[in-house]
Structures are given as C-alpha cells and as structure tokens.
Design brief:
Strand content: under 5%
Radius of gyration: 27 Å
Distance between the termini: 70 Å
Shape: elongated
Structural class: mainly alpha
Number of helices: 5
Largest sheet: 2 strands, antiparallel
Strand order of the largest sheet: 1-2
Number of domains: 2
Order of helices and strands: HEEHHHH
Length: about 130
C-alpha cells in the first residue's frame, strides 16, 4: 500500500484536440552512443508511439481581445495615451466624434475583411 500512495497527475484532454494536434512520441536523440546493455531513458510516463501534444498552451489566462477602457471616453479630450495626436488627426480626417467610434470601426473592418492565405488582405487593411 505504501507504493500506491504516490499521487498520479491525471487530466482530461478532449478527443478533438488529440485528433487534430497530437503526434506519436519520439524521444530526442542526444547523439551519444549507448551500449547494448544500457536502456533508453524516456521522458517520465512517455514511451515511443504514445500520443502527445507539444504545442498546446494550457495557461489559465484568458485571451484579452478588447481594450474598451482605453478608448471608452465621451469626448476626445479624455483620451490620454501616447498616440493621442495621431488619434485626434484620424478622427478629424474620418469625421468621428468619440475614440470608441474609431475602435468600433476598426473591429468592424477586421471582422468584414476577407483574409486570404497569400496575405493580400494586408494591403486592404490601411484603407
């Protein structure tokens, strides 16, 4: 019973993640020659052919996709970031009254933009 008291870390990985992002485990070759008698040291709990996912970020931090507090002001004078002059010029050029209107326009432009694999959409973005 003393040997079974060590806790095992078990976690749930959804099957679609394993199907889309996993590959068979291949131990790294350190380049050293081993004798016939020495056994290969694998990573703990992993053996050749086991399904592993290496490039999956499992952090608890949620992605931040909006900066509403930065742009949420009733008048342009309330905006005090380091690009204030550029924003005022852009608002005067495009006819926007509030910084949040610029933010909404940018979100709408990005959502409606057709992004192609060749990257031609980068030329349409500044328009």
């Amino acid at each position: 019973m003393a040997g079974t008291t060590s806790a095992q870390y078990q976690h749930f990985v959804p099957q679609f993640l394993l199907k889309n992002f996993s590959h068979p485990y291949k131990p790294q070759n350190d380049g050293s020659k081993t004798s016939k008698r020495s056994k290969r040291k694998y990573d703990k709990g992993k053996y050749p052919g086991d399904t592993v996912v290496r490039n999956l970020n499992l952090t608890a931090d949620l992605p931040v996709i909006c900066e509403t507090l930065r742009f949420y002001h009733d008048n342009p004078e309330g905006y005090d970031a380091n690009d204030r002059e550029l924003l005022h010029d852009y608002m005067a050029e495009k006819g926007y009254e509030r910084p949040v209107d610029v933010w909404f326009h940018n979100l709408k432009t990005i959502m409606e933009l057709h992004m192609d694999p060749e990257g031609k959409w980068l030329l349409d973005l500044p328009k």
